[in-house]
Amino acid sequence: MQTALKRVESNKGAAGIDGMKVEDLRDYLKAHWQEVRETLESGKYRPSPVRRVEIPKSDGGVRQLGIPTVIDRVIQQAIAQVLSPMFEEIFSTQSYGFRPGRSAHQAVQQSQEYIREGYDWVVDIDLEKFFDRVNHDMLMARVARVVKDKRVLKLIRAYLNSGVMVNGVVMETEEGTPQGGPLSPLLSNVMLNDLDRELEERGHKFVRYADDCNIYVKTERAGERVLESVKRYLEKKLKLKVNPKKSKVERATRAKFLGFSFWKRKGEVFIRIANRTKERFAEKIRHLTKRTRSGEMEELIRQINRYLIGWMGYYRLARTPSVFQGLDEWIRRRLRQMQWKRWKKGTTRYREIVKLGVPKGRAALGAVGTSPWRMSHSPVIHEALSNAYWRSLGLESMLERYNKVRYSF
Length: 409
Fold this sequence. Notes:
alpha+beta
């Protein structure tokens, strides 16, 4: 429980329906742990309903999260810590999501290896609202294969049935395992482990990350056949719904997986950033660098850096230095546009450009204009607001970060 408490505290996160914050949790447990423990040991503990939160998805839909109370998060975390090693013994090596020592990068690299071996077509299985539609009885039957303690089984079932609070009204949950709690990732892997074993028995080359499953085959015809048979298995055996619009067979070099895609050159297969991923990146940067935005430039750069560092921490796996260079240049141009716009008047622009070291005779060329975006690309503004200028303000370079880590793989 101490380990679980520390994990919940380090993860932080929002409050549940009772409003208790993570920072208040330790003091509450010091005062009330004995009674919580007694209800757990006697099998009388009743989890609180989760708080429903909707997160926008990149495809225009929403992902429904269920935020448990911080007390329930500690208990769920404790359960997950004990059960995870037990289930790790039976989980497939082709499952990479939410497992110790496994990562999305490993999943992408395994996909890359299959394509290198000549599996040029991919069957992309999309489960429709997987976390909302898991059958509780089928899930608990799979948990009970490994967990024999009836009190623990009863407690897990109580979490599945705890309900969701929407606009102050508690709604019962007869199916699903809401995303947001520490136990949910483990339960999703328990449910889908049967799929992994079925694919292994059929001899398929596949990679699964949570509910995102890609199966690699050598021909389009084989892919269509696999898609239909796996769809039948999921819907009849596991009572899961396959999304017919998003599940498809396509060239492996056209498919996207976990934000990445692949490309070939001279027989070698390389990892790149998926187009939609780059679009979402651009949307975020455009939001941060709106021309009408106020505030200190230094603070804006700090916000951009926070986003860039996290983004590069994940997408550094892509072998596309030219893409990182292009994004660097585009970000600097967005910032030049902002700065030029902020100077407002021609006299102010002239004065600031001279102050930045541009000769007076040329500075006037950067002081006039009607389009901030066009002026941000002019030689004079480039000279005044040079790459070195942005570096002096602390702006991170994605290309430089990529070059630092490219030999670590």
